[in-house]
Amino acid sequence: MRTIFRLIGGSLSLSVVLASGPAAAGPLDAPGAAKALACSACHGLGGQSPSNTMPVIAGIAPWYFKKAIEDYAAGRRPSPEMEPYAKYVLEAGVDDLASYFASQPRQPTAVRVDAGAVERGRVASQQCVVCHVESGKGDPAKGIPDLRGQPPGYLANQMLLFKADRRSPGDATLKALKELMKSIPDDQIADLAAYYSSLR
Amino acid sequence: MTRLTRREFLRTSASGAGLALLAAGCGPAIKGDFAPKAGRRVVVIGGGWGGATAAKYLRLADASIEVVLLEPNRQFVSCPFSNLVLSGVRSIDGLTFGYGGLRSHGVRVYHDAASAIEPDVRRVRVGEGYLEYDRLIVSPGVEFQWEQVDGLAAAQDRVLHAWKAGPQTVELARQLAAMPDGGVFVLTVPPVAYRCPPGPYERACQVAWSLKTKKPRSKLVVLDANANVVSKAALFRAAWKDYPNLEYRASNKVVKVDPSTREVTTEFGDRVKYDVINLIPPQRAGTIAVQADLVGADKRWCEVNHLTYESVKHKNVHVIGDSTIGLPVPKSGNIANAMGKICAVAVVHLLNGKEPPAMAPGNTCYSWVNDHEAIAVVNAYRIEGGKVVQIEQKLTPGQSAQWAQNAVGWATSIWQDMLA
Ligand SMILES: Cc1cc2nc3c(=O)[nH]c(=O)nc-3n(C[C@H](O)[C@H](O)[C@H](O)COP(=O)(O)OP(=O)(O)OC[C@H]3O[C@@H](n4cnc5c(N)ncnc54)[C@H](O)[C@@H]3O)c2cc1C
User: pTM (2 decimals)?
Assistant: First the structure.
C-alpha cells in the first residue's frame, strides 16, 4: 500500500481505501526501470523511441538485447554513443535491463513512410524472408532480430552500415547478409526500410 | 509583484481542492500560504532541463505526491540546438515548447519565480506569499557574474551573451545577419566552470560557417579565457581547418568591454575591436541557490550528495543541473535531465521511507560543426563508494552527417523525456 492515507488525510474512511485497493504500480515501479533511466534520453521512456534515428528498444527480445550490448561494449559493433552506455549496462546488470525492456509493450514508430516505397520494399523483401521470415519478426534460433515497426531512418542506416562492412566488421557469421546488402542499390535500401518499418 | 493571472491560476489549479478557495476570493497578488498543502508535496524551482524532468518523473514515480513547479517563463526554450539559430540553420520556434505536457502529468505549474527558501520551516517564498514543501528540488541553472568584466553590467542590453536561449539568441542572430561583410565578430569564452563546455566552440563553428557562406570577407575572433579548447579539442580544431576566417586565441581572458568604442580588453591589456560582440560572462549557480546559502565556500556552485542530490548544506533541499559541482560530469542539458530523473526517484523513495537506489547519470553532447555535420562526446558513469565515477569517455572518430542525424534523434527524444 502506498501513500493514499497520508495523501487524503486521517479523516478518510476505511471503505474508500479498500475500494481503491493497493496503488497501481507506476511506470517506474517495474524491476529494472531505475537502471534504464539513462536510456530514455535517446530511446524514449520505456524504450519507445520517438525519432527517426534512434531504434525502438521497447519489447526487444532479451537474447538480441544482450548480443547487441555485448557487441557494443566489445567494440565489435562500433558506436560512440552505445559503447560507453553498453559498458554501463554490463555493470548495472544486463539481465535486469534485458527483462525490463522486453516487458515494455512495443509501439511501432510514429515516423510516417511513403506508401509507394512500402510497396516497392515489399517486393524487394523476397531477398530477406529466408532469414527474417515473411512476417519480419525474425527467428531467435538463428539469431535473426525483429525488424517490424522500427524507425525507417534507423533501419536504412543499419543496412548501409552492413553494406559498408561497418557494423560488426569482419564478422564471419554475417557474411551472407553483407554480401546481399552490397548487391542492393541505396534507393532500394530506403524502400526496404520503409517496408519493414510499416510492418506490425 | 506576481505575474500569476486568475485564468492561469485556475488552469494550473484545476484539480486542486484547496486551491479553489483562493481563486474564489483574492485578487492576483499572492499572499500567505497561497496553496495550502493537503498531502505530501515536492516543490521544484526552475522548469529548465533539470527541473522539468524532475517534476515529470516525480509524478511518474508516485502519482500520490503533489508536485508544484515554479518557473517564471511561460515557454521552455532549448539551449541545445540554439547555436544553429545564429547560423540560420534552425528557427527559435522549433526549439520552443509549452508546459502543457507537464500539466497533463498532474504537475502544478506556476509561472512565477521563487524569491527565497526557508529550509528551517520548509517553505519557498513567492512574492509576498509562500508554499510549504516536504522536499524541495532546486534547478535554477546559471547566473552571470557581470561584475567580473569591467563595463559589462551597464551594457547588458548591447553586449549580448545569448547563453540562455530566448530573445538574446534571436537578437544576436539578427546582429550577425546585419553585420557588413568585412566586419569582425568577437566571441569570448569564460573561464571554467561554465554551462556547456563544448558550447562556445560549437557556436564558433556556426558563426564561422555562417560568415564563410554569407560574408566571405568577414572574420571571427575567439578570445578564450582558458589555455586550450575546453572540450573535444582535437575534433573542434580539425573542424576549424575549414574555417580560415576563424582566429582562435587561447589564454585571452576578457576583463573589459566598451560598447562606445566597440572594443574589448584582455587581461594582458590587448584591445580587440569588434563589429558584433558575443561576450559569454563568467558564471555561478542561479541566484536563488546563492541567496539560500546552498553554494560552497567559492560562493559559486552547490555541493550535493551523489546519490540523492540532497544539498550538503540544507536538509530536504536537493540541487540538480548546472548549479551543482563536485561530480565528474559536465554542465550539460543531458546531465541535468539525468540528475532530474535520479533525484526524482530518490526523493520519492525518501518520502516513502525507502532507501534510494544508487544510480549513475549518463551524458552525450553533440556539437554541430557546420550546417549538416556534428561531433559528439559520450560519458558513462558508475557509483563507487557513494560517489559518481566515470567508466568511460568516448568521442566520435570525426565529424559526419550521421552524428548530426543522431543529434536530431537525441533532441527529439530528450525534449519529450522532459516535457511530453
Ligand atoms: C548555446 C548552448 C548550447 C548548449 N548545447 C547543449 C547540448 O547540445 N547538449 C547538452 O546536453 N547541453 C547543452 N547546453 C547546456 C544546457 O542548456 C544546460 O546544461 C541546461 O540547461 C542545464 O539545466 P538546468 O536545469 O540546470 O538549467 P536551465 O535549463 O537553465 O533551467 C533553469 C530554469 O530555472 C528558472 N529559474 C531560475 N531562477 C528561478 C527562480 N528563482 N524561481 C523559479 N525559476 C527559476 C529559469 O527561468 C530556467 O528556466 C547548451 C547550453 C548553451 C547555452
Answer: 0.93
